[in-house]
Amino acid sequence: MKVAVWDTYVTRKDGKIMHFDILVNESDKADQVFEYGKNYLKTISQEGQVLTSKECKFCHIDKAPEAIENQILKNGFSIIEMENCN
Questions:
Q1: Side-chain-facing half-sphere of 81: CA atoms under 13 Å
Q2: pLDDT tens profile 7-28
Q3: How is the beta sheet containing 2-11 ordered, strand by strand?
Q4: How many of the other CB atoms lie within 10 Å of CB of 70?
Q5: Which of 12, 18, 62, 84 has its CA 20 to 30 A from that of 44?
Q6: What is the pLDDT of residues 29-60, one digit of tens each?
Q7: Residue 61 in 3-state DSSP?
Q8: How many domains does the chain have?
Q9: Alpha-carbon distance 82 to 25, whole Å?
């Protein structure tokens, strides 16, 4: 499966910047990607933080490893946490 990688930087409630990638089916539109990102933020107690095209930008298309592909098929998206996500 080819996936779209969206590079995302969101300011946490404590002011730190978190960096994560949102991986989705390559045909998903930006509005859907932002909703997936907001769903992820809820799971880490960061709901209500701003997530728009300013914070989340399309980066590239890539081939997904099987584990990522399975997450996308199950949930619609996958997250790769990079910095300050916990």
A1: 9
A2: 999 999 999 999 999 999 999 9
A3: 56-63, 2-11, 17-25, 77-83
A4: 13
A5: 62
A6: 999 999 999 999 999 999 999 999 999 999 99
A7: strand
A8: 1
A9: 20
Which structural domain, as residue segments, surrounds residue 19? Answer: 2-83
Comparing CA positions, the residue from 48, 77, 56, 60 lying closest to residue 8 is 56
CATH number reported for the structural domain that contains residue 35 in this entry: 3.10.510.10
CB distance 58 to 2 below 8 Å: no
Q: What are the backbone dihedrals phi and psi of residue 41, each rounded to the nearest 5 degrees, phi first?
A: -60, -35
**For residue 70, what is the DSSP state?**
H
Secondary structure of residue 33 in the 3-state scheme = helix
The neighbouring-strand residues paired with 30 are none
